[in-house]
Amino acid sequence: MKILIDNGHGSNTLGKSSPDNRLREYAWAREIAVRLVDKLKSLGYDAQRLTPEDYDVSITKRVLRANEICRKHGTKNVLLVSIHNNAAGNGKWGNAKGFSVFVSKNASANSKKCARLFTDEAIARKLMGNRSIPAEKYWTWSWTTADIGILKQSNCPAVLTENLFMDNKEDCDFLLSEAGKNIIVDLHVAAIEKYVKSL
Length: 199
Ligand SMILES: [Zn+2]
Description:
Layout: E1 2-7, H1 25-42, E2 46-49, H2 59-73, E3 78-86, E4 100-102, H3 109-124, H4 149-153, E5 158-165, H5 169-176, H6 178-198
Parallel strand pairs: 1-2, 1-3, 3-5
Antiparallel strand pairs: 4-5
The site of zinc ion has 4 residues, from loops.
C-alpha cells in the first residue's frame, strides 16, 4: 500500500494565511506532511510526500505524479491524502471553526469510506468545532459545479483534509501549538491505519 501525502499550496501561493500571518498554510501543511510521513514510515507503512518542493506544484503535475504511482502499484494499492487549512476567507478573524474532509463528486466508495474514517477520528478528538456534520460524514464542493482537481483526476482513492480554520483565532492557536500539531498528525495516522486495515 502506497500512501501519498500532498501538502497543499507553495511558498509562492498568494494569500492562504491567518489574518496575523502567524500561520501560512503552505508551511503548516508541509510541516504536518513531513511529520505524518515520518510517523507512517515508523509504523511500517510505505508513505511519501507527493510534492516535496517548497513552491507550488500545479494540480496537473500532482495528478500526473499520483497516477504514475497508481500505474506502478495498482489504483487500489494507493491512497492520496491532501492536507490543507480551511478559511472563512474574508481576511479577518471569523467564527467558523473545526475539521472537515472532502471527496470529489466522482469519488469512489473507498474514497468515501476513508473520508468517513477521518470524520470519525476528528469527532473522537472533539475537533469538529461548529461544523455541522453531514449524514455521509464527508463533504463535497456541493455549492458549485466545479470540483477538487487533485481528488477528481487522481485515479486512486483520495481525500482532502481541511484542518480547522486558520482564520479562527482559537483554531489558529491550536494549529500552531505542539500539542495541536501532534493531535492532527495522530488523527491522520489513525484514519489512514483504519482505512488500510479495512481493505
Ligand atoms: Zn488549501
